[in-house]
Every structure is written in C-alpha cells, then in structure tokens.
Write a structure and sequence with these properties.
- With 173 residues, the chain is an alpha+beta fold.
- It has one domain.
- It has three helices and nine strands.
- It has a seven-stranded antiparallel sheet with strand order 3-4-5-6-9-8-7, covered by helices on one side. A two-stranded antiparallel sheet has the order 1-2.
- The longest helix has 18 residues.
- 25% of the residues are buried.
- The model has no long low-confidence stretch (mean pLDDT 89).
C-alpha cells in the first residue's frame, strides 16, 4: 500500500466493501496464491499476516495486513496502521478522514467527527469508531485506538476492517 487512494480503492468499489481486490469466501490457499504469500505469513489456521510500512509525509507508519478466515473461507480483512508518534497519528487521522469523506457514502454507525477526537484517544480502552454498510451487506469499520507499551510509551493504532456479507441463512425445511 503506497497511498490513501490505493488504500480506499482496495476497500470500496461499486457500493460494496471489499478487501485487496479479493472475492469474499475464497479459501486460504487461494488468498495465499493470489497474494503470493507462503507459510511464513500464516499466523494461525484462520489468519494470514503481512507486515510492512505505509509511507506518510516524511516518515511512515507500521502497517499490518490481516486476512481472516472462518471454515477456510475469507470473511474479513484488516489494515492496522500504528505509530508511537501522537502528532503523526493525529495528522494521519485527519488525512484519512478527508479521503473517506471524498470516497465513501455517509457512514451508518457514528459519523466522521470521530476523527476530530484522535487527539483524545487514550489507552483507557475508549477508542473511537465509525462504520459503513455496503449494498451487499458487507461492512467497513474504522477504529482509532491506543495501546500501552512497555516503559509507559503508547502505540496509536488505526484499524480498518472490511467484512464480507453474511451468508444467506438457509430456511427451515
């Protein structure tokens, strides 16, 4: 991932929330094949992970990409962007808000003003969250979080999660 436009294109297309241009509910093996991953990326049976960096301004944020599986079906993907620099976190949130406003419809859970509270995000477990629902029942959620690290330092995290539509429930026979 190299910029915000690429990030948003990998999350939203034609009224639906997606992840990394992958179809929902494909197998873990198929995700590994399409993304050219190997067993080193497999954290658990239900999770693939890629660590990297997201260039931002003159520095960068740590970037983690997660692919989540249920019964060997791809059901959710997450981007985690993190930094120990509080000012950088606030700037990243402001920039992300601008891109979300331009690229996505109005959220259905909360609103984009949560990004204005980025400076107040703390490790007390009270993060900020906003969500959208796609035409197909897919979801996108953005959470602003902080985690305590060793030696009283804090890690500020932006979590962006895209979730597949729920499968149709089979009626009682």
């Amino acid at each position: 991932m190299k910029d915000f436009d690429q990030l948003l294109t990998s999350l939203y297309q034609e009224g639906k929330y997606i992840f990394e241009d992958l179809p929902w509910l494909i197998s873990k093996e198929e995700v590994m094949e399409r993304k050219q991953l190997n067993d080193n990326n497999s954290v658990r049976e239900d999770l693939l992970k890629i660590d990297g960096i997201f260039p931002f301004n003159d520095s960068s944020l740590e970037q983690t990409v997660l692919f989540v599986f249920e019964d060997d079906k791809f059901v959710s993907g997450e981007y985690l962007f993190s930094t120990a620099d509080h000012d950088e976190f606030i700037k990243f949130c402001e920039e992300l808000k601008t891109h979300l406003e331009k690229s996505l419809p109005k959220p259905f859970g909360n609103d984009l003003s949560v990004f204005d509270n980025a400076k107040n995000v703390d490790t007390d477990g009270q993060g900020e969250s906003v969500s959208w629902k796609g035409e197909d029942g897919s979801y996108l959620m953005v959470d602003l979080l902080a985690a305590a690290q060793e030696d009283d330092k804090k890690q500020y995290i932006i979590q962006i999660q895209s979730t597949s539509p729920l499968p149709e429930k089979e009626g009682l026979q």
